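User: Please run a holo structure prediction.
Assistant: Happy to. Please share the sequence and the ligand.
User: Here you go; the ligand is NAP.
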Amino acid sequence: MATTKQATASPAVGLAGFTLPLPYRVFFLLIEPIATLAGAYYAFFDQRTYLDLTHASSAPSPIPLGTSIAMSQLANLYFAFALSEALVLRATSDLRVWKAVLFCLLVADLGHLYTVSVLGPRIYWSVFEWNAIDWGNIGFSPVTMPYPEQFTGFQVNGPDTWLDFHKNEFQPKPFGDYDVDVKIEACGVCGSDVHTLNGGWGEQNFPLAVGHEIVGTAVRVGSKVTLIKEGQRVGVGAQSYSCLDCRQCKNDNETYCKKQLDTYGAVWPDTGIVSQGGYSSHVRTHEHWVFPIPEGLPSTVAAPMLCAGLTAYSPLVRNGCGPGKKVGIVGLGGIGHLGVLFAKALGAEVWAISRTHAKEDDARKLGADGFLATADKDWNAAHVMTFDLIVNTANSFDGFDLDAYLSLLDVHAKWVSVGLPEDDGIKIRNQTFLSNGCFFGSSHLGSRKETLAMLQLAADKGIRTWVEEVPISKENLANVLTRLHNNDVKYRFCLTGYQDQFGA
Ligand SMILES: NC(=O)c1ccc[n+]([C@@H]2O[C@H](COP(=O)([O-])OP(=O)(O)OC[C@H]3O[C@@H](n4cnc5c(N)ncnc54)[C@H](OP(=O)(O)O)[C@@H]3O)[C@@H](O)[C@H]2O)c1
Ligand SMILES: [Zn+2]
Ligand SMILES: [Zn+2]
């Protein structure tokens, strides 16, 4: 009897007669496998809940949460090793326990290898910084998972209350390997911010913080980022994404990519999160749309260049602006005044074309060689068919006599409209183009290459945006947007004082 019992109770290992005590069996057969599977589930399918849980229980730490979670998994691994060595493998002959433990170790090992390959060996000696270690048994997690931190921004709830700003926290898109978090220091106020908030461009995704002429500091860079260094002063403009793989993207036309996304108001694929702009504490952007700012350019001078400057610069360089060319800039606002500055810097003869003479002195100070006011009688007569290129920045079609403007162009010369008025647009007849065979086109922002070249040109030639600096606040935002709407700005508002609103 005794012999038979002994034989059936001693499988592979042969520790006859020993059964693991109940608490250990419960732990290894029940808790450990369930926790591991639950952890794997949350890590891959419900990362938000996982991070909310881990974050809630974590002490503040200088190390990013994803790193901390990865390290907690390492701890978990060693814990499992220690236990299995000490207790299981020496103490039981129960094969089910062996299998369960080995399975858990395998899962932990894969997680370990993955996290170490991404984080590097630093995690071994950063033990003192771990802050999620108490959640070590929820399974491993990839370090690329989203971080739960919130950014803060001045948002508007809809076009009916477009001047009513609310300081809210919002969730940025998940942090990717190529992303850069920029802590904002300055942001220009673009005409597009007005069109977007007041409903002039139709439906938008609210609540929304606008602003896409951003300069700040890169405070965090993704593991695959090569173009930007942490701590660098950088800028972000109106575009934040494209596929970087299509015909347009490969030809430095990423601004025309079918998958291009705007810095604010765009819905990030996969997450449904709406991108938020520079009236905020931070912006999270793919490195391709983050630009180092040359040292010679003050932040408030550089910021407006990232949308307004580029929108003027790109059509100028793409359409032959340079020595020997007569170039017109219609509308002396944010884009227009930078258009005059850049066209001059590129060596062209530059004419500012405004509605009245109110801005004539300023245009000359900006470097314009000539000035036309469309309110004057026969304002175009003396210049018919003399211009090589005209860039139109007007943001409205009220009283806009397109024929008169186009009459200025030489044969086959180009008219490039970058302004995006709110209403339906204007009617154009083919006959309009007959007298000079001119070309009529448009232009959207510019490429990364052009942005870098523009910033360098501005630094080299000492080009200075005319900026009115305004500390960011609820009241000041309402005020500057009203003034911009009323064409009362010389020539770009730039928001400052971010530290006072959002902290150091
Ligand atoms: N294509 C792009 O990639 C792109 C990028 C950014 C912005 N935008 C668009 O470009 C436009 C201009 O932006 P912004 O920031 O420069 O605006 P802004 O500072 O308000 O300047 C617009 C200028 O247009 C002129 N203007 C306004 N109404 C006019 C009219 N009825 N006829 C003729 N001229 C008129 C005014 O100049 P005067 O007082 O001198 O007449 C005004 O200063 C906006 O529609 C904006 O959305 C386009
Ligand atoms: Zn803009
Ligand atoms: Zn593309």
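Residues 433 and 439 are 8 Å apart (CA to CA).
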